[in-house]
Amino acid sequence: MTQTSDISRPAKELIEGLKEIGAATVAGTLGHMGFRNPHMVGPVAQNPGKSIVGPALTLQFLPQRPDLFSEGEYADPETQLHRHVLYHVQEGDVVVVDARADMSSGVFGDMMSTYFKGRGGAGIIIDGCMRDRPNVAQLDLPLWLRGWTPNYHVQTSIYPNAVNVPIACGGVTVMPGDIIVADDDGAVVVPVTMAKAVIEEAQKHHEWEVFSRMKLLEGAPLQRYYPLHPDAEEEYQAWRASHPR
């Protein structure tokens, strides 16, 4: 029987803290911390307005090679590794797939997606495609993909090789259990060890941005309010004191 390992899930307070922060702020904060590009380039939001935060379950695809893979192996559905990543899904999990940016293989279709939703999955990120778009659309799942195809997952040139291993998705390393933050700007990877610092720094940034946005809407000088100039700090602190969280 095929066996795959589960992930270690981060503390709930880290997930909840990151839910208050958008992908752009998270990416910028990580950038200042030395993580130059945490954004998975390629997968784009398929359901505008959706946002998710959750731990990553990973699925790795490789190019097909006849001595390592043949579709005959799939006579038994339980050898299909794209099924096994879904078996690990718990409420709030995010499935992240390295499909090698392949545009001709539909990693999941409507039945797999239905199962994923039924298990409480938060969303799916694929550096590649899905299939069965009309039926999947009815599920209203948060999805970040390169596109859609009518082909099934091993019909052309790739095959699933491993579950819950380190992968590269959209040019970013994703470790099993990393926290994914995704919205209309894209999907960002947050290492669990960095999550607390990201939340703290991003919260500071968010607070003064609220103040600065208000001032800029009033026609105040960009030079003074974005980024917040030291000369405006006293004014900001006074505003903050009168607008407690």
What attributes characterize this protein structure?
alpha/beta, 8 helices, single chain, 8-stranded mixed sheet, 245 residues
**Approximately how much helix is present in the residues?**
25-40%
The assigned structural class equals alpha/beta
Q: Low-confidence parts lasting 5 or more residues at pLDDT below 50? A: none
Mean pLDDT: 94
Number of E-state strands = 12
* Number of H/I helices: 8
What is the end-to-end distance? 53 Å
The rough form would be described as elongated
Query: H/E element string?
Result: HHEEHEHEEHEEEEEEEHHH
Q: Mind describing the biggest β-sheet?
A: 8 strands, mixed
Strand content: 15-25%
The value of Rg in angstroms is 21 Å
Element layout with pairings:
Blueprint: H1 12-18, H2 23-32, E1 44-45, E2 52-63, H3 81-87, E3 94-98, H4 110-118, E4 123-126, E5 129-130, H5 133-139, E6 143-145, E7 147-148, E8 158-163, E9 167-169, E10 172-174, E11 179-183, E12 186-190, H6 192-217, H7 222-225, H8 233-242
Parallel strand pairs: 2-3, 3-4, 4-6, 5-7
Antiparallel strand pairs: 1-6, 2-8, 2-11, 9-10, 11-12
Helix pairs in contact: 2-6, 4-5
